[in-house]
Specification:
alpha/beta; globular
Length: about 300
């Protein structure tokens, strides 16, 4: 089963959203994350006179990025965490993996090296054994594409391995458009129903993903921290806003064909307002940090 392999996200769309993603990510979660990860790195380096035999055993942070796309999470996060780091990028799309692997930073926040490997394939088969030795699991805009059981399995694997998880930019189902229109609520509700659709026999979490992730991690004893991470669209993000509008309304109409005629006119008005600089949109997301209890050997 390729759980999140069915949608193929074009590199152009991922590039278009990267700046908005970076602005939205919640830096408040980095302090507790750094505190956890720092415990896994060498506390000191040998003095120059100590000789090569005194070098500590090699330590590095091993970071797995699920559904990495073009690598925007790695470009944002690697330079904000200490090193050395080894990133393992996971995606179902080999073209995106090649793009991501070539564009991650080469050094971490403390100047230590960042290295990259890639793994192509199913994103839902990770086990505690797979995650053994992993310092951090990350994902961005991924949880809504999982099912309840897949989310539960991922949380169980992280907790069993003692592996923290930083799961960013999960949709919440809340969208605010200014100026508002009477059809906003119907489009939003239809879009949210589309996000919860059954796809290939899999019932997707959609905007319920943060609640499902929180419940799954807490059930296994992990500490879960969340922060709002909204997209704020409009103005310089006009191209992204227009692309998002087309996808948002298109999904709503696919879910509710009875909205088609009104939806086409609605989209035309919204795109015209966007082009004129008269539309702003807030798309609400949540970033989640899960901190399982460390297991023996993980710090």
């Amino acid at each position: 089963m390729n759980a999140v392999g069915a949608p193929r996200f074009a590199a152009e769309w991922l590039a278009l959203r990267e700046r908005a993603d970076a602005a939205a990510r919640a830096p408040e979660l980095l302090h507790p994350l750094r505190a956890r990860l720092n415990a896994q790195l060498p506390r000191s380096s040998p003095t120059p006179s100590a000789g090569p035999e005194a070098l500590p055993a090699p330590h590095e942070l091993v970071i797995r990025d699920l559904g990495c796309g073009t690598g925007s999470m790695g470009r944002w996060l690697a330079v904000r965490l200490p090193g050395p780091q080894r990133w393992i990028l996971h995606d179902h799309d080999p073209a995106l993996l090649a793009h991501a692997g070539d564009r991650l930073p080469s050094t971490a926040a403390n100047g230590r090296p960042v290295t990259v490997t890639t793994e192509c394939g199913d994103l839902t088969g990770l086990t505690a054994g797979t995650l053994a030795g992993t310092s951090l699991l990350t994902a961005s805009a991924l949880l809504d594409l999982l099912t309840h059981d897949e989310m539960a399995d991922l949380a169980a694997a992280c907790v069993a391995a003692g592996c923290p998880a930083l799961l960013a930019l999960s949709v919440t189902g809340r969208v605010e458009l200014t100026p508002s229109e009477p059809l906003d609520a119907a489009i939003a509700a239809a879009f949210n129903d589309h996000q919860r659709r059954t796809d290939g026999g899999r019932r997707l979490l959609g905007p319920d993903s943060v609640a499902a992730a929180t419940e799954a991690f807490e059930r296994h004893g992990a500490t879960v921290l969340t922060q709002s991470s909204p997209w704020r669209l409009g103005g310089p993000e006009a191209a992204l806003t227009a692309s998002w509008l087309r996808g948002w309304v298109g999904a709503a109409v696919a879910q509710r064909p009875d909205l088609a005629l009104r939806g086409i006119a609605y989209l035309r008005r919204r795109l015209a307002a966007c082009a004129a600089g008269e539309l702003s949109v807030t798309v609400h997301h949540t970033d989640l940090l899960a901190l399982p209890r460390p297991v023996s050997g993980t710090g």
